[in-house]
Known about the structure:
Cofactor: pyridoxal 5'-phosphate
Largest sheet: 8 strands, parallel
CATH superfamily: Alanine racemase
Protein name: Pyridoxal phosphate homeostasis protein
Strand order of the largest sheet: 7-6-5-4-3-2-1-8
Order of helices and strands: HEHEHEHEHEHEHEHEH
Oligomer: single chain
Keywords: Pyridoxal phosphate
Number of domains: 1
CATH topology: TIM Barrel
Organism: Sanguibacter antarcticus
CATH class: Alpha Beta
Strand content: 15-25%
GO molecular function, one term: pyridoxal phosphate binding
Amino acid sequence: MLSMPLDLVQTIANVCDRVSAACAAGARDPQDVRLLLATKTQPADLVRRAVAAAQGLDLRTTGRGARVLVGENRVQELTAKAPDLADLRLEAHLIGPLQSNKVNHALRALALHGSACVESVDSWELARRLSDRAVAGATASPLDVFLQVNVSGEPTKSGVSPQAASDLAVAVGGLAGLRLRGFMTIGANSADRGLVRAGFDTLREVRDTVVSSGAVGTSDAVELSMGMSRDLEEAVLAGATIVRVGTAVFGTRPPLG
């Protein structure tokens, strides 16, 4: 049996408090940072509860509409859960690796939501495949995409290198059917907070270089999806506009069955 959080409103409030504290330290507006619920292994009914909790909390504390996003790591889970969540009209993000042979499955599932984004574009080949399918009408056009950058250089992480990111981003920005919205990374797996922060700073510098390039299709690439439960403070201080949080909201993930 799944272990359910006792109070999703409280766990989400705790995350929002952390974001707000980091924003205060960095002289930023907390409304400039959106919360993405990383729902890996979480069942659709629990995701629905978490979304409702986040939306209710947002309305009570700011009086504004909900700014919560949902993100799936695996295409198989995205496909399984999308029909059960489609009525919520959420902005759904694919935040895990996407193989070319699963593009059609992913886009069909993402199309069921209110809006969709693929955050894990890390090659020209994948970008071209997404472009071709978007132009063919597989999803709403343009399809929002982020470029995934491996700022830590760790071989276990996906993403293009920071040195190659700007050129690839400019190329992706010119593809029909896609809208380059920003950049995504996973922070270094290190207890050295300075090292983690440096990686996030690198992603911001890549973003700034691309947006200031004047190249076609790059002016909207302002988003920075970075920071998770363990390192969201460093990410916010470095300029994150989206933090992807799972464990801090849902607790330790149940094993995949």
